[in-house]
Amino acid sequence: MTEAPNRITTESFDLLITALHMPNPGDGFTVVTAMRHSQSDALTLLVRGYPDVQSAMVAILLEPDEIIVKPFEVGSLADLVREKMLARKPTARSCKNRVGVILQGSISSIVETWLLRAKPPPRGTPRRLIQ
To answer: Is the entire prediction scored with pTM above 0.70?
Structure first.
């Protein structure tokens, strides 16, 4: 089941149609998450069978563009894809940095702020909580 996430990270796609429940537990969740993370502009459609509450909550948390409940007509799926693709607007890519990179870039202000907060107040000054 590593083929889909690997292809998602190495190839470009406009559309993902996947099921939440696949042979291995978590496979559908992994595929949708990989697509959302790697190719946020791609249209993501999630196909579901029986509508139990637990699966519905997981499906909603994945934030697909559309949840399609089986059975469905292929013609209506084609119409939905066409409509959604025409209405798509590119999303602004957010710059994602690792925590270490962010901290390294802010080290001077972090140390300065910490030193100010750690420095004891002059004698006779009442202590107060620093927020």
So the answer is: no
